[in-house]
Amino acid sequence: MSKPNLARRVAEAAEIALTARKYVTFIDVVTGLRWLHSRHVDTWRQGRVTTLAELAAVDEDRLLTTAQLLREWAVAKGLKPMETPYVAGTRDRKELRFTSGPAQEPFRVHWLSPDLGEARVRRLAEAQSKAPDLVAVASLDAWTCASCADTGPYLIVEDDRPHCLTCADLDHLMFLPSGNAALSRRAKQESGLSAVVVRYNRRRKVYQRVGVLVEEAALAAAEERCLADEEARLRRRERDRVRREEQDVEFQGRMAAEIARLFPGCPPERALEIAGHAAQRGSGRVGRTAAAKALDENAITLAVVASVRHLDTDYDRLLMAGVPRAEARDRIRQTIDDKLTEFRTPPR
């Protein structure tokens, strides 16, 4: 890839992140370029690899060039730099490294929009300065503690090696499963020592939070607090639900309008159907990505392609018949191309 082409792609990925959050990071760009997946970033933040570059699809020189191109783009946009510490979710809170080289500063800078208010900048700085949560992994595979050669339901990574809760001095903590956000939040607040528990989802290829480890007394105190204001929290949740529904309808309408602009031959009801399906909250579909929320043309096109693949081709039938996914996609590629051409053609 030529440097001008890379600069263009870096700018596109950065614009999407800036639109979504009013600031952009090196991590936003490399995940936007698909050189790293979110699961790779999770593994790195858990301290399970020495450098982020070990998991990237490109070499360290390309990563450094990308950081430099991001800086050039950000300076030209008038964004404000804020160097941010990156610390592992391990007991020693070791500094995370992006590459094996000595220069880590180019990767740590967060580029802030000038439109970001002082209060938001202050909250962002405070959040970044806090030590990250300790992370315990609920392992799906057999493992052995590096200290005592025993095992257990959870492991803590230290010095790139797994340790059991006993050797990590965390065996006095209780597991609180996810499901009650207020209880989990308050139990962590009350607990002098805690750890977030994650498990790898092989289907979605991401680490997902499944609960927290907290002190027994902290859990009891949190339960009392939750019982005291349960009615008020129920009313607030209902208000939040209505607000989210209104936001979803507005966003789906904007996405449908963009589909109609890019694909004028797509029937209006089909555009609404695609937007409603792709942007469904909690679905994990392309419509919930930062790129789609910024109405990025590529993300919108992917949503249309997904709809065509499942509704206008034999793709699902081929999968049910045991055809490998890559082969099934090859068989239907021409049908998809023909349908997209039809959708891109304005009606007469």
Characterization of this structure:
With 348 residues, the protein is α+β, with helices and mostly antiparallel strands. 52% of the residues lie in helices and 12% in strands. The chain is built from 14 helices and nine strands. The strands form two sheets. It has a six-stranded mixed sheet with strand order 6-5-4-8-9-7. α1 (3-21) crosses α4 and α7 (181-190) crosses α8. The model has no long low-confidence stretch (mean pLDDT 90).
Properties at a glance:
348 residues; alpha+beta; 3-stranded antiparallel β-sheet; 9 strands; 52% helix
Q: How much is the average pLDDT?
A: 90
Return the string of H and E elements.
HEHHHEHEHEEEEHEEHHHHHHH
End-to-end Cα distance: 40 Å
Helix content range: 40-55%
**Continuous helix count:** 14
Structural class: alpha+beta
What's the shape?
globular
Q: Which consecutive residue ranges, at least 5 long each, have pLDDT under 50? A: none
What can be said about this structure in brief?
This protein is of the alpha+beta class. The chain contains 14 helices and nine strands.
